[in-house]
Request: fold
Amino acid sequence: MPAVLELDGSYGEGGGQLLRSAVALSCLTGSPIRVFNVRGKRPKPGLQPQHMTALKAAAEVSGALVQGLSIGSTEVYFEPKEIKAGRYLFDIKTAGSVTLVMQTLLPILSFAKGTSEVTIIGGTDVPWSPTVDYFRYVAIDAFRSMGLDCAVELLRRGHYPRGGGRVVFAVRPAKPLSPIVAVKRGRVLAVRGISHCTSLPAHVASRQASSAVRIIRETGLEDVRIAEERGEGDGPGSGVALWAEVESGPNIGADALGAREKRAEEVGREAAEKLLAELKTGMAVDRHLGDMLIIYMAMARGRSEIGVTELTMHAETMIWLTERFLGLKWLVERGPGGSATLRVDGAGIH
Reply:
């Protein structure tokens, strides 16, 4: 058995992403890990329900031995066995993010020997996490360009604090991943989006969409279309997800969520201004997608290079983590306004 890799969970961003990504890399490399100081930089350190679900899910699909699997635990031992394709159901039982659980499982199940179908119940549109629409229309699109074979279906939305959302994602075996090269973005061809509300009047979605469209069109971008969606959920909630379709390279995305005492027009404005800020840098990859691509760039065969609109602490943590697991050396060139170019020769995991 390989030596146990010791990881300080308070390194860098010091949150749940380090643990989730470490578990995924453990499954892919077969390296057992011990993570201490789990979520050491968070106000409530240790495992919380959504981290527990991600950890249990990774353990179930890889037959792993796990120690420290309890709420509040600050130390986890994870020893993977064989990755197994299949049909799985994971219920977070809170409004914990379903997309963060998907982020954990996608790289693992992509290297199983068969097709998997995973149902996850929890929060689809919640703070501090990628929304399900961002994940479907920005992240998944970029992952596919590298050779992942996956799809996400939204069955029901879930918002904070009740959750109750439901998604199904399908993953088929991937070949060795192709590198990605996307440094400077191409010309923006169109902006698309979804404005949704659940258990609220339909005019909320309409007002969010109208506000976002108006602000984007004021910049001279004319081809802007935002679909409006209303549904019922376990509780009220709303949000807007936007993505710019560009001439070459991945979609560039941004989103915003509704909240009590926050007017629908403010939600639309927030999403639009976030997207325009991403586009202003001229880089090809938005800050959130940059975080998510690092693990796949590290896994790919060949040299990848991306330009990110902002080098986030999450991204720096992922660079450190992939170097620890795979012996890689990243080249990071910082640019103006927090932007950066990231380059790596991937490990060619297959």
Notes: The chain has eight helices and 16 strands. The domain at 283-350 is CATH 3.30.110 (Translation Initiation Factor IF3).
